[in-house]
C-alpha cells in the first residue's frame, strides 16, 4: 500500500476547490458603480421624495415661479413626478450609450420608481381627495366614511401593485432593452402618469366647478385602483421609446409625432391627460380585440 504525503492528499481533495470558490463568491463585492446613470436614477428618486414633501404641505400655498405664473401645490406635485419620469427615461439611455449597464443600475432604478411612481402618486391622490372632501357636505355620514376608506384602500392597493410590478419586471426583464418591444402589464410610470394627468387637468381647468368635486373625489380613487390592477395584469403594452427610436418611420407616423408635439406646446395639460389615459385604454382595448379574434378564429367542434 502506497501512502501519499499529507499535502498531496489535501491538494487532491475533490471538495477543496468548491469550498474555496464558494468562499470567494461570498466575499465578492460590487467592483464599480456607473456614476452618471446612477446620479440620474437618484434624481428620479429625489423627485419622488420632493413630490411627497410638497403634497404634505398646506394646499392653500400658491407657488409663484415667474411673474403672472402661479401654480397650485397639487399641480406642482404632478409636474415634479413628471420630472421623475424624464429622469427615468434618461438613465437607461445614458447607461447604454456609455456601455455601463449593470444589475445594480436596474435594482436602483426599481427602488427609485417605487418612490416616484408608487408612493408619491398614491399619497397625492389621498391628499387631494381629502382636501375636496372637506368642502363637500354629505347628508349621510356613513357615505363619507365609506369614501374615506375607499380612498385609503385604493392607495394601499396601488402601492402594493407597483412593488409587485417592479419586482416582476426585474425577474422577467432582459438586460438588452432592444430585445423586447412590449411590456407585460401597465408600466409604473404610465400608471403614475394617469393619476398625475387627471390631477393636473382638474386643478387647472375644472376645480372651480362645485359639482365636479364629488365626481373627482369618487372617480380618482377608482381609477387609481384600476391602474394598480393593470400594472400586475398580463395586458401587453407597447414599449413606446423602442417603437419611436428603433422602428422605421413612415410619413404618416412622422406627421403624427409632429402634430403631437404641437398639441403638447398648445395645451400640455390636455395632452398629458389624453396621452396617458389613451395609452392605458389602448392596451385594454387591444387585449380585448385579440381575445375575441382568437376565440372566433378557433374552429368550433
Number of helices: 11
Low-confidence segments, given as residue ranges, are none
CATH architecture annotation: Up-down Bundle
Number of domain modules: 1
Mean pLDDT: 80
The coarse silhouette is globular
CATH topology name: Four Helix Bundle (Hemerythrin (Met), subunit A)
- Rg over CA atoms, rounded to whole Å, is 25 Å
**Main sheet properties:** 2 strands, antiparallel
Indicate the proportion of strand residues. under 5%
How would you write the strand order of the largest sheet? 1-2
Distance between the termini: 77 Å
Structural class of the secondary structure composition?
A: mainly alpha
Protein described:
With 301 residues, the chain is mainly alpha-helical. The chain has one domain (32-237, 263-269): Four Helix Bundle (Hemerythrin (Met), subunit A). It has eleven helices and four strands; from the N terminus they run H-H-H-E-E-H-H-H-E-H-H-E-H-H-H. The strands form two sheets. A two-stranded antiparallel ribbon has the order 1-2. A hairpin with a 2-residue loop joins strand 1 and strand 2 (69-71). Helix 5 (103-133) runs antiparallel to helix 6. It is globular and about 55 Å long. The N and C termini lie far apart (77 Å). The mean pLDDT is 80.
Amino acid at each position: 500500500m502506497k501512502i501519499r504525503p499529507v499535502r498531496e492528499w489535501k491538494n487532491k481533495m475533490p471538495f477543496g476547490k468548491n469550498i474555496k470558490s464558494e468562499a470567494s463568491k461570498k466575499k465578492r463585492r460590487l467592483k464599480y458603480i456607473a456614476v452618471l446613470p446612477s446620479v440620474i436614477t437618484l434624481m428620479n428618486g429625489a423627485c419622488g421624495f420632493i413630490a411627497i414633501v410638497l403634497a404634505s404641505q398646506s394646499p392653500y400655498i400658491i407657488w409663484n415661479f415667474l411673474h403672472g405664473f402661479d401654480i397650485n401645490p397639487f399641480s406642482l406635485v404632478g409636474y415634479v413626478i413628471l420630472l421623475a419620469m424624464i429622469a427615468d427615461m434618461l438613465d437607461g439611455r445614458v447607461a447604454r450609450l456609455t456601455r455601463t449597464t449593470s444589475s445594480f443600475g436596474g435594482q436602483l432604478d426599481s427602488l427609485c420608481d417605487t418612490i416616484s411612481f408608487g408612493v408619491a402618486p398614491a399619497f397625492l391622490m389621498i391628499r387631494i381627495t381629502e382636501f375636496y372632501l372637506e368642502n363637500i357636505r354629505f347628508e349621510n355620514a356613513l357615505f363619507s366614511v365609506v369614501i374615506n376608506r375607499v380612498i385609503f384602500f385604493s392607495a394601499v392597493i396601488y402601492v402594493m401593485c407597483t412593488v409587485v410590478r417592479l419586482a416582476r419586471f426585474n425577474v422577467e426583464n432582459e438586460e438588452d432593452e432592444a430585445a423586447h418591444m412590449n411590456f407585460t402589464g401597465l408600466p409604473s410610470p404610465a400608471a403614475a402618469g394617469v393619476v398625475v394627468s387627471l390631477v393636473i387637468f382638474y386643478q387647472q381647468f375644472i376645480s372651480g366647478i362645485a359639482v365636479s368635486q364629488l365626481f373627482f373625489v369618487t372617480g380618482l380613487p377608482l381609477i387609481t385602483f384600476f391602474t394598480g390592477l393593470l400594472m400586475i395584469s398580463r395586458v401587453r403594452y407597447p414599449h413606446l421609446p423602442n417603437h419611436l427610436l428603433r422602428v422605421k418611420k413612415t410619413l404618416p407616423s412622422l406627421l403624427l409625432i409632429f402634430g403631437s408635439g404641437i398639441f403638447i406646446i398648445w395645451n400640455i395639460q390636455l395632452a398629458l391627460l389624453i396621452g396617458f389615459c389613451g395609452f392605458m385604454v389602448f392596451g385594454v382595448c387591444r387585449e380585448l380585440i385579440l381575445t375575441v379574434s382568437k376565440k372566433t378564429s378557433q374552429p368550433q367542434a
